[in-house]
């Protein structure tokens, strides 16, 4: 019997879909049979991150009752099963979000872990996705507006009795204006699962339609995501150390063709 994990955020722009896609691949790399489903039927983006845009049958068609969920499953990176929502306006108009629970019930027989990429915020579609999941991971940015909106998601999840596994702090830059992990944990009263730094490679990956944990596995964001997946699966993952060179060291190396590291 599969477990369902909703990936949610209080506001858009936190990187929730990127986390959903890459965490799914990371879990698959640890040997899990993973299905990732784009429940953001109005603003679908998961298929773009996974390189599966333009597929003829999508979740919207399933929710409209015209096809079975098995017909909307595609093989994605690292063997992850992907169910895109699709961008067709006609399919979206016919979709019935309340049928999501029925869809998830069928998926329980097809994988070990079901990742649900929820719509941002607390609209009808988001509430449906959160209420149908057993567990929830909250994605936030280290800024007060993101945390304020996340508090609403926490409150709603507890009302639905959806177990909150923890928070992923995404797109950190170590600037003084950012909220600390300790402060975020205190405000939300939810454990921190991991911290993912701002990484320019994520934008590059979006252009190629490939998850960062596959295209740039040694990048800071990839290693942080792999650590989170290891924590969720009870596996050990030792990230590679990346050497941080100061401007002076780089300058000296440039002048003399090398130098002490």
Automatic annotation (TrEMBL):
InterPro entries (alphabetical): MinD_archaea, MinD_FleN, P-loop_NTPase, ParA/MinD_ATPase, YlxH/NBP35
GO biological process, one term: cell division
NCBIfam families: minD_arch
Keyword ATP-binding: yes
SUPFAM superfamilies in alphabetical order: P-loop containing nucleoside triphosphate hydrolases
Name of the molecule in the record: Cell division ATPase MinD
Pfam families associated with the record: ParA
GO molecular function: ATP binding; ATP hydrolysis activity
Keyword set includes Cell cycle: yes
Family matches, as PANTHER family: ATPASE INVOLVED IN CHROMOSOME PARTITIONING, PARA_MIND FAMILY, SEPTUM SITE-DETERMINING PROTEIN MIND HOMOLOG, CHLOROPLASTIC-RELATED
GO CC terms, sorted: cytoplasmic side of plasma membrane; cytosol
The organism of origin for this protein: Methanothermococcus okinawensis (strain DSM 14208 / JCM 11175 / IH1)
Binding site for ATP: 11-18
Lineage: Archaea, Methanobacteriati, Methanobacteriota, Methanomada group, Methanococci
Gene3D superfamilies documented for this protein: P-loop containing nucleotide triphosphate hydrolases (3.40.50.300)
Keyword annotations from UniProtKB, A to Z: ATP-binding, Cell cycle, Cell division, Nucleotide-binding
């Amino acid at each position: 019997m599969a477990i369902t994990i909703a990936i949610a955020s209080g506001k858009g722009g936190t990187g929730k879909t990127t986390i959903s896609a890459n965490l799914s691949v990371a879990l698959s790399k640890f040997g899990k049979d993973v299905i990732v489903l784009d429940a953001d039927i109005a603003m679908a983006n998961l298929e773009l991150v996974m390189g599966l845009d333009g597929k003829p049958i999508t979740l919207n068609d399933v929710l409209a009752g015209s096809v079975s969920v098995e017909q909307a499953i595609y093989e994605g990176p690292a063997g992850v099963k992907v169910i895109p929502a699709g961008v067709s306006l006609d399919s979206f108009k016919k979709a019935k979000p309340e049928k999501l629970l029925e869809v998830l019930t069928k998926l329980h027989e097809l994988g070990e872990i079901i990742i649900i990429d929820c719509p941002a915020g607390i609209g009808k579609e988001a509430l449906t996705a959160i209420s149908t999941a057993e567990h929830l991971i909250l994605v936030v940015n280290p800024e007060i507006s993101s945390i304020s909106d996340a508090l609403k998601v926490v409150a709603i999840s507890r009302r639905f009795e959806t177990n909150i596994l923890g928070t992923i702090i995404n797109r950190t830059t170590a600037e003084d204006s950012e909220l600390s992990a300790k402060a975020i944990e205190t405000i939300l009263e939810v454990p921190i699962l991991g911290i993912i730094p701002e990484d320019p490679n994520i934008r590059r990956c979006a252009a190629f339609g490939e998850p960062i944990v596959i295209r740039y596995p040694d990048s800071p964001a990839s290693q942080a995501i792999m650590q989170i997946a290891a924590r969720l699966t009870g596996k050990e993952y030792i990230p590679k150390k990346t050497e941080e060179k100061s401007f002076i060291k780089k300058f000296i190396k440039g002048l003399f063709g090398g130098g002490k590291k």
